[in-house]
């Protein structure tokens, strides 16, 4: 397994649409394992392949909360085949938008069809935080970030701050300053 670099917004590669995999073969399994390791190291509870610059429709998840414990979940070509009329609001974060959070409204439960790590067709009903995470990750496969669900004003503010943080980091690196360890523990990033 190998740790991959997670792209951060604003990055045009995060806005691209990923392609379906033909089957879950050894290469896709390797990708899934690398993604899971990268997600755990971040740390996060979900990761989509485009976040590590691979335009394949592959996502991984592992939610370990008091109310939801899923263990590792691997999905290739996930699609939502049913969504509840009822909505739920969660404060979402994202490994590609570090340290920014916002409430996002999505269907409270969804039924997802996908291929699992053994290339078997699966259908799964996802509720609560798992429903939010699956929808958030499938969005990544279509080049959509959680900030695309919020007001343009708030989205632009977050993207501007991320750009500023990146420029400061690049300047510090050029000056030979050690990277500041500002990373703080916070809500789960997906
Ligand atoms: Zn995300």
Structure description:
The chain has three helices and seven strands. It has helices at residues 26-41, 128-141, 152-174, and strands at 46-48, 58-61, 73-83, 87-92, 102-107, 109-115, 121-127. The strands form two sheets. The protein has a five-stranded antiparallel β-sheet with strand order 1-2-3-6-7. A two-stranded antiparallel sheet has the order 4-5. Helices cover 28% and strands 23% of the residues. By secondary structure, the chain is of the alpha+beta class. Strand 6 and strand 7 form a beta hairpin. The mean pLDDT is 93. Zinc ion binds at residues 94-96, 136, 140, 190.
Write a concise synopsis of the structure shown.
This protein has 190 residues and is α+β, with helices and mostly antiparallel strands. Helix content is 28%, strand content 23%.
């Amino acid at each position: 397994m190998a740790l991959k670099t997670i792209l951060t917004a604003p990055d045009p590669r995060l806005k691209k649409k990923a392609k379906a995999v033909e089957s879950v073969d050894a290469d896709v399994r390797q990708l899934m394992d690398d993604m899971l390791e990268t997600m755990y190291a971040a740390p996060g509870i979900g990761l989509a392949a485009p976040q590590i610059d691979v335009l394949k429709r592959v996502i991984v998840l592992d939610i370990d909360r008091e109310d939801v414990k899923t263990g590792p979940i691997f999905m290739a070509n996930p699609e939502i085949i049913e969504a509840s009329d009822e909505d739920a609001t969660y404060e979402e974060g994202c490994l590609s938008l570090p340290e920014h959070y916002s409430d996002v409204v999505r269907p409270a439960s969804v039924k997802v069809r996908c291929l699992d790590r053994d290339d078997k067709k699966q259908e799964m009903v996802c509720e609560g935080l798992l429903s939010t995470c699956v929808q958030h990750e499938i969005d990544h496969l279509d080049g959509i970030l959680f900030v695309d669900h919020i007001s343009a004003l708030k989205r632009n503010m977050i993207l501007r701050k991320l750009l500023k943080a990146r420029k400061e980091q690049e300047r510090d690196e050029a000056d030979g300053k050690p990277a500041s360890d500002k990373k703080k523990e916070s809500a789960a990033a997906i």
